[in-house]
Amino acid sequence: MPDNPADHNDNETRDKVREAHLRDLIAVIETGSVRSAARKLGLAQAAVSKNLTALEKSLGVPLLVRSARGVEPTEFGRIVLRRARVIDAELRHLQEELESAGGEGRKLITVGLSATAEAMLLPTAVARFREHTPNALISVLGGRSSSTIAALREARIDFAVGPLPTDQSLSDLHTEQLCSSDMGIVVRAGHPAADARDLAALVPYGWLYSVQQSGGPMIVTLMTRQGLPAPTLVAHCDSSSALVSMLLQSDLVTLNSLGGLEPLRERGLLKVLPIKLDLPPAVQHLETPTKRPLTPSAAALADEFRRASRRLRR
Fold this sequence. Notes:
This protein has helices spanning about 5-15, 20-30, 35-40, 45-60, 75-100, 115-120, 120-130, 145-155, 220-225, 240-250, 260-265, 295-314, and strands spanning about 65, 70-75, 110-115, 135-140, 160, 175-180, 185-190, 205-210, 210-215, 215, 230-235, 255, 270, 280-290. With about 325 residues, the protein is α/β, with parallel strands linked by helices. Strands 4-3-5-14-6 form a five-stranded mixed β-sheet, with helices on both faces. The protein has a five-stranded mixed β-sheet with strand order 11-8-12-7-13. The longest helix is centred in the N-terminal third of the chain and has 27 residues, at about 75-100.
């Protein structure tokens, strides 16, 4: 049976697209220039340029374009970048597993966390994880659930913990509920509105928010529902530390999940206002790719997040 010419073309493309080509493309797009990418990779600028030219030639499409902001990907470049990140991550994971099997190397695990998961689960999970994996390095990426999911799909993170986005399909991900936390309105101790019992008393103040629904911040919906002026939104805080820092040093207010702020409330630094809210709890899910296995170290850390959530439910 004669060979299919298309098969020859596919094999030729795969042979020509080298790991180094994809590595250099990722670096150029992330740094914004060939010079910066070469410096980051420890290579000659000419070598990086040669690899990029070879990659564009093998794929037959332009991948990069120069602009006032530097080198940016074309639409073709963005498609290749998504795949290149997955390939690059899988090669790094393969190397890690080989080194781990030989008892060598330092393990790197990158996780995406919501501000609630960061506050409620991260400290306990990391402490327990390091008891049996002290040589690991953990990198934490904050952000909205939509950006975290995008990072998970591109293999820029190993797994994520946070609320599930409601505006996209998650059929390519495995999700499992870990924990939930009631929502409440929180201010610093000694806040001028510390005795407020309704939302109307909070209209003069600026708001911080971390939990967001598809229609926007929840506090906007609540105030609109009660016929109040739209709240003054000051900052969206993906980091629990940023949220807490701004709360403690200002008269800002937040509508937030209470679980992550409970330790500070117990110490008398924050106060939950006695305002009844008709809101569902903030549910945190563990999100992993269905078609990409976790490395042993990432799987072990994910297990510690599960254990940390079970302790919260006791």
